[in-house]
Every structure is written in structure tokens, then in C-alpha cells.
Amino acid sequence: MYNIALVSSSVRIGRNSQRVALFLNNYIKENNLATVDLIDLCEYKFPVFDERLRYMKDPPANVLQFAERIIKAEGVIVVTPEYNGGYPAALKNAIDLLYPEWKRKPVGLSTVSAGSFGGAQVGPSLAFLFVRIGALVTPAVFRVPTVQNSYDENGVPVDKEASDRRAKTFLDEFFWLVEARKRMSD
């Protein structure tokens, strides 16, 4: 069984993307696809980025813990809202803290918006960032438009059948990449 990290990237009060992170967490566990380490960036309160972990003289304990969780994961799914066409500063900060830890790490993206496009603008820029630092990004994206109407606070979808179908398509691609990466490492 795979060990994956699921990053909930919004630290905003009243965040809705957490609903999708909870849905994916529950879906993966219910379908016995992997063990999931749900990483909520809201719990970290990282300092504003001033240096990568590997160059820090005395790294904070939470940065070391975050890095260890990413290192241990065979793949990472990032759930991010779209803010003005981009991703949250907390996510960029967390990504930039690490560098070799992302190298050849399979990454799946779930983009979320309150509007009708499901974070279509944030996906390409976030994928570019991950590719730029050497991660392997799945082509499939789990997009969620009008998230506030699609999932409740516990991650329960309004339309379970449609959500499950879309999650399966997304996760099939993600786990294919995780398995391919694992075979290339063996």
C-alpha cells in the first residue's frame, strides 16, 4: 500500500478547499488505495520564506517535521484554492522551503474555486512551479467549481456518484505515476 501526503493549502478563515481535502482523504481511505498523511498548512504557521531548509542554520522544528512528512510520502496531492488566479502564499512558502525533497516526487493537483471554473487558472501555474523544481506532476487535475455548494464542512459531496467518478479518474492517474516512480526506483 502506498503512503501519500495530502496537503490542504489554504490557511484562510472560512476556507472551503479543506472540504475537498477531507473528501479526497476519506475517498482514498474508504477505497483502501493508500495510507494518507493529511497535512494542513493552517497548523504550521511557517515563517515567511527567507531560506530553504537545507541552508538554514537552525531550522524550526515544524519545518523539519513538514520536510520529513514530504520525504516519507511516495506521492503528494495538493488541494489548493484559486486566489485571484494564483495559489495561496502559504502554499508557495511551504513549497519553497524544500527543494531536493520534491525531486521526482509524484504530485497530483486538486484546484478549487467559489466560481464556475474550478481553479482552472491556478492549476497550470502550480504545475509549472512543481515541474520547475523537479517534481512529477500528473496530467489529471481534480477541479472543483462552486466548492461551497458541492461539499459540506466534513467533505461529504452533494453528488456522491459524480464526485466519486471524478475522484477515481484523478486518482487512477496519480497512483499510476506513483507506481511508475516506485518501479523506476527499485
Automatic annotation (TrEMBL):
PANTHER family tied to this protein: CHROMATE REDUCTASE, NAD(P)H-DEPENDENT FMN REDUCTASE LOT6
GO MF terms held by the record: FMN binding; oxidoreductase activity
Name the UniProt record assigns to this protein: NAD(P)H-dependent oxidoreductase
InterPro entries with a match to the protein in the record: Flavoprotein-like_sf, FMN_Rdtase-like_dom, NAD(P)H-dep_reductase
Organism: Flavisolibacter ginsenosidimutans
Origin superkingdom: Bacteria
Domain NADPH-dependent FMN reductase-like as annotated: residue spans: 3-144
Assigned GO CC terms: cytosol
